[in-house]
Amino acid sequence: MREIHVDKVRETVKRLCMEANYFLPQDVLSAFKEGKEKEVSPVGKNVFDILQENARIAATEEIPYCQDTGFAVVFMEIGQDVRFVGGNLEDAINQGVAEGYTEGYLRKSIVSDPLFDRKNTGDNTPAVIHYSIVPGDRVKITVAAKGGGSENMSRLAMLKPADGLEGVKKFVLKAVSDAGPNPCPPITVGVGVGGTFEKVAYLAKKAILRPIGHRNPDPRYAKLEEELLEEINKLGIGPSGFGGKVTALDVKIEWYPCHIASLPVAVNIQCHASRHKEAEI
Fold first, then answer.
1. How far apart are CA 153 and CA 157, in angstroms?
2. Strand, coil or helix: what is 118?
3. What is the 3 state secondary structure string of 203-244?
4. Domain count of the chain?
5. Number of Cβ atoms within 10 Å of the Cβ of 3
6. Is-contact 144 270, C-beta < 8 A?
């Protein structure tokens, strides 16, 4: 059994909160370059130039890439041979978020109650935390900064099994079409299929973490990812909603077995600033 002090978790989460907001992943930067080459609209090409310059300034000066520094969504993959010592794990994660957002001069966007007391908590906590237990004695921590504009455009439906493949495709395309320019395209589209009401939303959110261009290992779902990406880019929304060929940088699907009477599907949209960083301890 390997012991890990929760202070190590706190320090790692703190660092990842700042890095996720300062440095876009390389796959996203590469997608910006490819997107500019594919885009036919002069305005769209200019948008890609602006996005790349914005990313350069943010990384060079270590300042937030976007003013909406997001809800801190933390994915914890915990080895089953790990034992945490020195305090409460969840407290350490939230303390790391608080320190990262405060010391990193990141905007605090979380309110303490959704309906009756929408008072800012002042340190961007609490985080949304997802735990999974995996083999081994290591811990992988991924912090995703999820902005409100793109999150608001996400959708979930409990389709009938008879709706099938075409029903899923229709739902995804409608979700993106209805979102229009609101989630700050070019977007990344995470799609969850199967599971239960709560599981399918998790699948859609986790799908966004997969690198752009990395297809689902199941060739059937890989083909569906490519088909949906092509259809979405025919919608003509374009970069920043100004029209063009590149509305989405990628579509990523995660699936899970489901009940014989169900066909859950969820769409989690990420803006062009697909911000997430990971570390292993």
1. 13
2. coil
3. HHHHHCCCCCCCCCCCHHHHHHHHHHHHHHCCCCCCHHHCCC
4. 2
5. 10
6. no
pTM recorded for the entire structure = 0.95
Query: Cα–chain-centroid distance for residue 202?
Result: 11
CB 175 within 8 A of CB 153: yes
CB 75 within 8 A of CB 141: yes
- Quote the domain boundaries for residue 117: 2-20+65-146
For tokens 């899970």, name the residue.
256
Alpha-carbon dihedral angle through residues 236, 240, 242, 243, given to the nearest 10 degrees: -20
Asked, for residue 57, whether it belongs to a domain, the answer is no
Q: Is the peptide bond before 126 cis (omega within 30 degrees of 0)?
A: yes
- Say whether both 121 and 94 belong to one domain: yes
3-class DSSP state of 194: strand
Burial class (CB in 10 A: 0-12, 13-18, 19+), 252: buried
- Do the beta carbons of residue 191 and residue 253 sit within 8 Å? yes
Please write the tens of the pLDDT for every residue from 154-172: 999 999 999 999 999 999 9
- Dump pLDDT digits (tens) for 233-259: 999 999 999 999 999 999 999 999 999
Residue type, 101: Y
